[in-house]
Design goal:
Number of domains: 2
Strand order of the largest sheet: 1-2-3
Order of helices and strands: HEEHHHHHEHHHHHEHHEEEHHE
Largest sheet: 3 strands, antiparallel
Number of helices: 15
Length: 299
């Protein structure tokens, strides 16, 4: 039998050969029998002797190679592993006595240089999956403060043009507060020589935690500040004058650069928004019956 005839047989059986994601190949009973030039029914009968103690010489050889009898019995459905295919070809090429075939010997010689597994990978077009991790997109980042402030101003102008200058007071105040926060952030970043960060609780909730603190309702910003002063007085009692709803008012500020203070504020804010009726809880705690003492920051 010529190498050309071997190549023709390989072309006929390659559809019955598979390679998994790890590169391990399998061939059907029929494909293996064609390569060895033996009857596929005879090969199957020989493999099935693994079910009892009268195993064929082929099965004994496979077991010596490390294959379990129970595994051999599954090959009729799952296919024969590439290492076992090489063992079967060698058996029928050199050890099967009268059943030895020239074709099995030629197949063994053809696979000696590359191995059965590499041959199966080649005829199925298998390539090793890339182990390189896909490039992660960069994390989104906010534009610089100056750009965000310019965008805000342009949005305010556009909105004023659309409404004829008649903005809802709450919307107008929200724009003013947001612009003031941006300016404060810009000024803070421009300062050098200090790493301190003093914020009101509303600023901390919106800037650091990304929460939206409403202007009215049971969870409005005024009640949030009262909640912190009532249930977490240990976080601080400093105040400074800030613009609130269009007027200058004394606002409690907290040392948010201190991890313990930041953690306490975070806990207080989460509890406030999780409470179904913070107004009732504050009233029960007597938060509205008297004014807390205060200490102003020296300017």
């Amino acid at each position: 039998m010529s190498p050309i005839e071997i190549a023709q047989i390989i072309e006929q059986i390659k559809q019955e050969i598979t390679v998994d994601s790890n590169g391990q190949g399998r061939a059907s009973i029929r494909a293996t029998a064609r390569l060895a030039d033996v009857n596929d029914a005879g090969l199957l009968r020989s493999l099935k002797t693994a079910a009892d103690n009268s195993g064929s010489k082929l099965v004994e050889k496979l077991i010596r190679k490390g294959f379990e009898p129970a595994e051999i019995l599954t090959w009729s459905q799952s296919g024969i592993p590439d290492v076992a295919v090489a063992t079967i070809l060698h058996y029928y090429g050199y050890e099967a006595g009268k059943r030895c075939s020239e074709q099995a010997r030629l197949a063994c010689e053809a696979f000696e240089s590359v191995g059965v597994r590499a041959w199966m990978q080649d005829i199925t077009g298998w390539t090793k999956p890339s182990t390189q991790q896909p490039e992660q997109p960069p994390a989104p980042a906010l534009p610089p403060v100056e750009q965000r402030l310019q965008t805000l101003v342009e949005a305010m102008k556009t909105l004023a043009d659309l409404t004829g200058g008649k903005l809802n007071p709450y919307i107008e105040q929200h724009f003013k507060d947001f612009a003031a926060n941006l300016l404060a952030e810009h000024n803070r970043q421009a300062l050098c020589g200090t790493s301190e960060k003093w914020l009101g609780v509303v600023n901390f909730a919106e800037i650091e935690l990304g929460k939206k603190v409403p202007l009215h309702g049971s969870h409005y910003r005024g009640h949030l500040g009262t909640w912190v002063r009532t249930f977490y007085p240990h976080l601080g009692d400093l105040q400074e004058n800030r613009l609130v709803n269009g007027t200058q008012q004394s606002v409690y500020i907290y040392a948010c650069h201190d991890p313990a203070i930041a953690e306490g504020l975070t806990k207080a804010i989460e509890e406030f928004f999780a409470h179904p009726n913070p107004t009732a809880a504050l009233r029960q705690a007597g938060a509205f019956s008297h004014k807390k003492g205060m200490r102003l920051v020296k300017k």
